[in-house]
Amino acid sequence: MDSTPPSSSSSPFDLVSSALGRYIPRGQAAAPGPAGAPADPAGGPPEQDLPAAGRQEQILGAVNLDRELRVTHRNLEAPVFAGLDAATGSPFVDLLPQGDVPTVTRRLRQVLETGEAHVARVQRLRRTDGSELVVSMSILPAAAPQEGLTVSLIAMARRLHLYAAETAIGTSLDIGETAQSLAESLLAWGDVAAIDLDFAVWTGEGVTERAQDRIRLRRAALVPDRAWPEGYVTLGDDLPGEASRLLAQAIRRADTPQSIVVPDRATIERVLGSPRLVRALVPSDRSAGVACVPLVLEGDPPVVLGVAEVWRRADRPFADSELLDLEELVARTSHHVDLARQHQREHTQVLALQRRLLPRSGGGTIQTASVYQPTTPDSAGVGGDWVNSFPLPDGRTALVVGDVVGHGLGAAATMGQLSMEARALLSAGLAPDEVLEHLDETVTLLDDAETGLAAGYSALGSTCCIAVYDPVSHRVALSSAGHLPPILVSPDGRAGPLALHPHPGLGAEFALREPFGVHTFVAPPGSLLALYTDGLVEDPAVPIDEGIGRLADAVASVHPWDPLQQAARRVVSEVMPARQRDDVTLLLARMIGYRKEDTATWRLPARDDAAVRARALVSALLRQWRTRDGTRDSVLLLVSELVTNAVRHAGGPITVRLIRDGPGLLCEVGDTGNGRPRLGRAGLLDDGGRGLHVVHRLTTRWGVRWTETGKVVWAEVVR
């Protein structure tokens, strides 16, 4: 009868230790098991029958832990585990790099709680001498919950490590993370690994047309994490110019990128030739040899993206086979570095576009401040949120915020196109609802398979909100396409979202399309208007109405004397969800308007004497404003021509408005006509068409804007 106990009664540690006994050659005692007996080597092949690789490269080990994650038993007698301080009673996490402790601790406790094994995690372990060992770590629950855990360790063989490293390095498009992953993988061959990238690669610039002898290196990754000697080049630092030139010359022997090995400290000091360069490049006094492997982008000619450096102590010289492994790993992953460079370039372009769209200044009649915060701290996922504010030629101010679907270059291109189109249409005098109609058509065209953007991206469902502030009447005309309602804070502190008619957004199906409405409201001086994107208020843990309410409370707390930019940042920090899921955008606008003494408005009947009456009223006001005689004559002639044209070509009452704005005077004449005045070429004997030529010559700029009852022709004159 077989007396071997069933597997269910043996702990995983016993099973792993028993398996280890079959692979440890005679003469190498295994660590005692839980009962104090040595692991049974019976049944294992005699030492002379074991292959040489089995005797020299034993890669299996096991550690037993209690529920406090302290070592109770261990079997780490294989030479590859030398230097791992896993003494009985010591915390297992002492073997881990500091940055890995939280993640591994969470995994260990998860297996304790659930009883489900965690298999084959690639993990680094610290040796007592500061070097690190790369292992494949599996966490197994013990036979009974109170017995804790068994951690099996497989020191990663070179080929397995190459595969695992290449897989890990290709998981990110961030240039820093890619370099860090490569450095961590190279640490299996040495004590310190560093990645120095050409500055053009780091910033995402083009590298194929650059002269390779002008390489400028920046340290993109450095492992392990430790205190470095003074003067040493650490993460984010530029290498000294002499060091960059030396490395460039060394790895481009015979004009071809090649690896180099400097075997000892004396040779290193002789090559560098300067104590300052030695301090900058050599990580410690114990570092005696270095292998420098170029990161090469294949081509004709090949382009060097940077240099990978692996440092060792004097007692561990580089073997030829190890240098081949290093070259293979770097060669396999160089294209990942170039992909990250291209992504960085795209990201830089998108971010530059986004910055160009940020508001610059609101002028004297309105104050604006904006905050844009991408989903990720490094902005790697810059998307389609956009915000803009700009003065219109007729003295009003436009406030625009939008949210284009998606992230990346497609969303950025759509964002830029919609933003510029909105600005052009608003400057041409179109009302907010008319502008949204054009944007709606643009989004539909962009989604067309033949005339739109590249396949795989759709902007359908993008949202936009446009507000136009008139600083004379203190009224705001606002239209929204599927956007969340703005927050209005009145001068007395009352705050709340505006009641807007919901709209499905830009590019909706034809059956769902509705006319864009215009919501008009009064915003007295001191009012505060907040426009934002959904990333600021959307939180899965709370209803959207509650998020908007929190934003209204935060905006209402802004004091009238608070610097608006600081207030905008404070509002975002208070309201933004704890777990940011989307880009966050906020635009605050504080209404100021014109002083009453700087504006005047008259309403005149459309009669033949309207021009005469308008000249008299304007002349009296200009004398009161003490305007220069030359300017007064120009303004009177201008008003006369505009009012005459309104009487001749339009009906209904005529409105004349004069605005004193700094060094300029703005003259407006409104009527009920819908015809657009055009500046044409008039012949010598033509009676009509000369009025606009007079207007054109007298003014610095003029234009037309449309209203619900007709149009307004405006013109600006320098005082």
Task: Describe the model.
With 719 residues, the protein is of the alpha+beta class. It is 31% helix and 25% strand. The protein is built from 17 helices and 25 strands. The strands form five sheets. It has a five-stranded antiparallel beta sheet with strand order 2-1-5-4-3, with helices on both faces. The chain has a five-stranded antiparallel beta sheet with strand order 7-6-10-9-8, sandwiched between helices. Strand 9 and strand 10 form a beta hairpin. Helix 5 packs antiparallel against helix 10 (320-357). It is elongated and about 110 Å long. The model is unreliable at 1-9, 21-56, 377-381, 451-455 and 683-687 (pLDDT under 50).
Describe the sheet with the most strands: 5 strands, antiparallel
Structural class: alpha+beta
Strand order of the largest sheet: 2-1-5-4-3
How far apart the termini lie comes to 114 Å
Runs in which pLDDT lies below 50 for 5 or more consecutive residues are: 1-9, 21-56, 377-381, 451-455, 683-687
Beta-sheet strand percentage? 15-25%
Which geometry do the CA atoms define? elongated
In total, the number of strands is: 25
Write down the Rg.
Answer: 37 Å
Oligomer description: single chain
Average of per-residue pLDDT values = 78
How are the elements arranged and paired?
Layout lengths: L11 H10 L30 H5 L3 E6 L5 E5 L25 H14 L3 E9 L5 E10 L7 E7 L2 H12 L5 H12 L5 E7 H5 L13 E7 L17 H11 L8 E3 L2 H8 L2 H7 L5 E11 L5 E11 L6 H38 L8 E8 L9 E9 L5 E11 L1 H19 L4 H15 L16 E8 L4 E7 L5 E3 L5 E3 L21 E4 L5 E5 L11 H13 L7 H12 L8 E8 L7 E6 L5 H15 L4 H21 L4 E8 L2 E8 L18 H9 L2 E6 L4 E8 L1
Helix pairs in contact: 4-5, 4-10, 5-10, 10-11, 11-12, 13-14, 15-16, 16-17
